[in-house]
Write a structure and sequence with these properties.
Chain A: One of its GO terms (biological process) is quorum sensing. Chain A: It catalyses: a fatty acyl-[ACP] + S-adenosyl-L-methionine = an N-acyl-L-homoserine lactone + S-methyl-5'-thioadenosine + holo-[ACP] + H(+). Chain A: Keywords: Acyltransferase, Autoinducer synthesis, Quorum sensing, S-adenosyl-L-methionine, Transferase. Chain A: GO terms for molecular function: N-acyl homoserine lactone synthase activity. The complex is a heterodimer of chains A (about 200) and B (about 250). Chain A has helices at about 5-10, 15-30, 80, 110-130, 145-150, 180-185, 200, and strands at about 1-5, 35-40, 40-45, 55-60, 65-70, 95-105, 135-140, 155-160, 165, 170-175, 195-200. Chain A is α+β, with helices and mostly antiparallel strands and about 200 residues long. Chain A has one domain (about 1-200): Gcn5-related N-acetyltransferase (GNAT) (Aminopeptidase, 3-Layer(aba) Sandwich). Chain B has about 250 residues and is an alpha+beta fold. Chain B contains eleven helices and five strands, in the order H-H-E-E-H-H-E-H-E-E-H-H-H-H-H-H. A five-stranded antiparallel beta sheet of chain B has the order 2-1-5-4-3, with helices on both faces. In chain B, strand 4 (about 115-125) and strand 5 form a beta hairpin. The N and C termini of chain B lie far apart (about 40 Å). Residues about 170-175 of chain B have low confidence and may be disordered. The interface between A and B is medium-sized, with 30 and 38 residues.
Chain lengths: ~200, ~250
């Protein structure tokens, strides 16, 4: 997995640029989210700031396969800033809590590759948390994802009730990451070993 | 009536529950707490009975017997409707998801006669796996509390995952036969109705090679027909509907 911190820094790198392009193909073109598009090809919003962390899974040729954006919950983030009402209590915040956003699988992937790449990205997120003193992830998910998120086998719990609007149904959730998370993913057949490549350290 | 706190407690217990008997007990308890009388937590197709399928059913015995005797798994309108959505639905609203035939209406009427009232079904779709669902039902004549449904939806999802975890004997990334990359590509094109010659043109390989790939894929599934090959590969998640219809 490849890691970059800060949107500006990520945009200087070809792999991470192609992540922003893929995000446009997935979230704007396919899922029709109402989010800004920069220069006609990159999906970049107000949360893509210098604190955002990007995790990317690439293929052998260095092409983007999958990615996710992690936002510190101590600042503005999707659950705390846009959808706090999805939580029954106040949205969880703290230095050891990150929010997973823009979980993105390349559109060109076929069914089987998608599952394999998804497993690598989920494993990478767990590795990242374990290596960076992160105790839990929060997230806002569309309901069609929810059963799949549970099926990974990690400790996931709802922070509020699923809330429907005319076009979609959203749920806020929290996933605890600790010493047994790897085993939980192994038991569900999701776990893949992923090497770490930090952009900052490589540079 | 339950609240989010009880849902969270349920999740915590369900996540570490040890066997399906204990889960059945937990389900019975939460079903009553939510004001329902019956519960059914099942995979919709049983390819390998007793090994990997989820099955906890507490329905009126008379109805369970009829359901099994007439093998209604495939034609049950509630199961069929649950394949059309990810979000839970009340049985009384099933017509917003599928068109009911005369046979469907008679199945629903029979269920009602056997003591099943209105119910709420939470579909469980996981890519690459058989569809399932978790349903809760009232006794006939009881009224479904609409405010409760988002909570019921959460309970249904966590219950299904708990049952799925218990039924997973040996986790295997690919449960059925595995197709090679090229075979899967050919089968996706077969599913699009392409001939071997057309497939050879699209993939830029020889027609003989395509014929061999499709034959090998059929052999792996032990089927002789192209149609059945495409359906089995779709069912297993070796190819997806997106591969067939274009994404």
């Amino acid at each position: 997995m490849h890691i970059a911190t800060g949107a500006a820094r990520a945009m200087e790198n070809r792999l991470f640029c192609s992540m922003f392009e893929e995000r446009k193909r997935v979230f704007v073109d396919l899922l029709r989210w109402d989010v800004p598009v920069f220069a006609g090809r990159y999906e970049i919003d107000q949360f893509d700031n210098d604190r955002a962390v990007y995790i990317v899974i690439a293929d052998a040729e260095g092409e983007h396969l999958a990615s996710a954006r992690l936002l510190p919950t101590t600042g503005d983030h999707i659950l705390g800033t846009i959808f706090p009402e999805l939580c029954e209590q106040v949205p969880p915040r703290g230095g050891a809590i990150l929010e997973i956003t823009r979980f993105c699988l390349a559109r060109r992937l076929r069914a089987r590759e998608r599952l394999e790449v998804r497993n690598r990205l989920v494993s990478a997120l767990v590795e990242y948390a374990l290596g960076n003193h992160i105790d839990s992830y929060t997230g806002v998910a569309e309901w069609f994802w929810f059963q799949q998120i549970l099926s990974f086998g990690w400790a996931c719990r709802p922070l509020g009730l699923p809330a429907s609007t005319s076009s979609r149904c959203l749920i806020a959730l929290q996933i605890d990451i600790n010493g047994s998370t790897r085993e939980q993913l192994q038991a569900s057949g999701i776990w893949r070993s992923v090497g770490l490549a930090d952009l900052a350290k490589a540079a | 009536m339950i609240g989010l706190g009880q849902v969270q407690d349920f999740c915590a217990v369900a996540a570490i529950i040890k066997d399906s008997q204990a889960l059945a007990g937990l389900m019975a308890e939460i079903t009553r707490a939510m004001g329902f009388r019956y519960v059914s937590l099942v995979h919709h197709i049983d390819l390998k009975p007793a090994v990997s399928s989820v099955h906890i059913v507490d329905y009126p015995p008379e109805w369970v017997e009829r359901f099994q005797a007439r093998r209604l798994y495939a034609s049950d309108p509630i199961h069929r409707a649950s394949h059309r959505t990810n979000i839970g639905f009340a049985w009384s609203a099933v017509q917003s998801l599928i068109t009911l035939s005369a046979a469907d209406r008679s199945i629903l009427a029979e269920a009602h006669d056997a003591g099943l009232g209105d119910g709420f079904t939470v579909p469980a779709h996981i890519p690459g796996e058989v569809n399932g669902s978790c349903s809760f039902a009232m006794g006939s004549g009881d009224v479904l509390d609409q405010r409760q449904l988002p909570l019921v939806q959460l309970i249904g999802s966590f219950a299904f995952e708990a049952a799925r975890r218990l039924s997973r004997q040996t986790p295997a990334p690919c449960e059925g036969p595995c197709l090679t990359e090229r075979q899967a590509e050919c089968v996706a094109l077969v599913a699009r109705g392409k001939t071997d010659w057309e497939i050879s043109q699209i993939l830029g390989i020889g027609q003989e090679t395509v014929i061999q790939h499709v034959k090998d894929a059929r052999d792996r599934y032990g089927v002789t027909k192209r149609t059945l090959l495409a359906i089995r590969a779709l069912f297993d998640g070796q190819i997806s509907f997106a591969d067939v219809f274009g994404r």
